[in-house]
């Protein structure tokens, strides 16, 4: 078997779907008995442990979009929620809207969070990012 370069591997990964890539990562972790999770807590605790300057707060790169209230236009908000959250049926979206405050999207980037917030607010909902 020919040895693939890093660039060739990256090109091969670009052709995979997210599900296929997720399955690959699981098999890789099982085969080599490793984890792909980044050691975030260890890296963040490093400067504070050795008495250096106070750690600088990092800018958030993942946001949760929380529906605080549906507002007066509940039907439009339900439609917007169904557009944002794939796989929700009408009943599930209605239950989610009526159970506010509830997270609609979790762990999304800033642009996606802002877009979702704008769409929900345009429909009449009160939304916050956390």
Q: Taking all residues together, what is the mean pLDDT? A: 79
Rg for CA atoms: 21 Å
The helix/strand series, from N terminus to C terminus, equals HHHEHHEHE
Cα(first) to Cα(last) distance is 48 Å
SS summary, helix count: 6
Helix content: 40-55%
Structural class by helix and strand composition: alpha+beta
* Amount of beta strand: 5-15%
The low-pLDDT segments are: 40-44
Number of strands: 3
Strand arrangement, major sheet? 2-1-3
Main sheet record: 3 strands, antiparallel
The coarse overall form would be elongated
- In terms of quaternary structure, what is this? single chain
Provide a brief overview of the structure.
The chain has 130 residues and is α+β, with helices and mostly antiparallel strands. It is built from six helices and three strands, in the order H-H-H-E-H-H-E-H-E.
